[in-house]
Design a protein that fits this description.
Length: 119
């Protein structure tokens, strides 16, 4: 038998199950697949910088682009994630950022918005 993990938000507490119980996580949330109880199937808001447009997600696969960041939790799309450009003097080389963690070195500055690196 090809046994599959229960999708995010659903669980199977018994062996030999043919269906998973619970309600699939709504868009904007995720849960680890393969849960064995209602408490481990708990749906969590997508973290800042990420979003999920599908139900039953096990990860929030959508992300803000490099050079942008978001502080919005539970986003369901790129537009609701409200990703904004990194301000001058800061940058983000990675996608899915909740802050722009890179910064110009002391004694230097930049007015470039949405930078993805120092150069």
């Amino acid at each position: 038998a090809a046994c599959l993990d229960c999708p995010g938000g659903k669980f199977s507490a018994t062996t030999g199950a043919s269906v998973c119980s619970g309600v699939a996580c709504k868009i904007g949330t995720y849960s680890t697949p393969g849960a064995t109880s209602l408490s481990t199937a708990a749906c969590l808001d997508c973290p800042a910088g990420k979003f999920s447009a599908t139900t039953g997600a096990s990860i929030c696969s959508g992300t803000c682009n490099a050079g942008t960041y978001s502080t919005t939790l539970g986003a369901i799309s790129l537009s609701t994630a409200a990703c904004v450009d990194c301000p001058g003097g800061k940058f983000s080389a990675t996608t899915g950022a909740s802050t722009c963690s890179g910064a110009c070195n002391a004694g230097t500055y930049s007015t470039t918005l949405g930078a993805i690196s120092l150069s």
